[in-house]
Model the fold of this input.
Amino acid sequence: MTTCININGTIEDEAFVSVLDHGFLFGDSVYEVVGTRQNKTCFLIEHLQRLRRSANGISLNIPFDDEWFRREIERTIEIADNQESYIRIVVTRGVGDIDIDPSSCHSPCTLIFVTEAHTYPVELYENGIHLAVVSIKRNSKDALNPGIKTGNYLNNVLAKIEAGRLGAHDALMLNPSGQLTESTTSNFFFVQDGRIMTPSLDCGILAGITRDTVIQMAHEKGFPLEEGRWPIEALEKADEMFLTGTIKQLMPVTRLDGKTIGDGKPGPITRRLMNFYQNLLDRLE
Ligand code: PLP
Done:
């Protein structure tokens, strides 16, 4: 496994950011995680668009254009020379005074971190994972909008810790109004009577690129799909559940709060969507 870090255009095996970088001090940064297929980036345009939306959301100017990112990502992947790559792009506010006010930060720091792709164990895809509904609420849209992918993930870290204590693989979070939102690094879907349902963006979730692809795919394949606002009770009659994310792709969920969902195996609609998604990745240029 080789790890290469491109820091503002210079590639190193190891890189360091200043202890005075506001990304380190305050989580004042934005980021993206990009996967590869045949070591070529997947959905890079969408990830760069979201990176810029996130940067706008925190009034951060990204000093490089998309062409720069494309070139530097390719160059870093090539030097790292792994079979498949995990790419993390981070843009921090940069070095400034030890003060919450970002006006002393004049140079954002741009990192492209490339390492060997890690995959989830096959058993998890075959058997599904266990989710726990946690007491930690997803950040309110009016506080730190979950639609902005910032380096401040403490909300999700706390949810993940609680899920671990409850013996689950991951957490399912509700918003402050008690509606379903998402997991700590993935979007949430459930299926009832053949109908696919997923919390709408206005519940306060990240607009996941995999979520979006799955929604489009479901429409194209003729599956009924609804985006909306649901309380936790809506899951009582769910036949299937799954998560979506760049690295995990589609991950079946077969237990919620210790209770078996359906027959305890990934459901038929989940499995069909998993297959469609793999075919779609195979067809990407
Ligand atoms: N929700 C959260 C909170 C995330 O952090 C992520 C991925 O990082 C997702 C959802 C899934 O988004 P995507 O499919 O773009 O990877």
User: Anything to note?
Assistant: The chain has a mean pLDDT of 97. The longest helix spans residues 268-283.
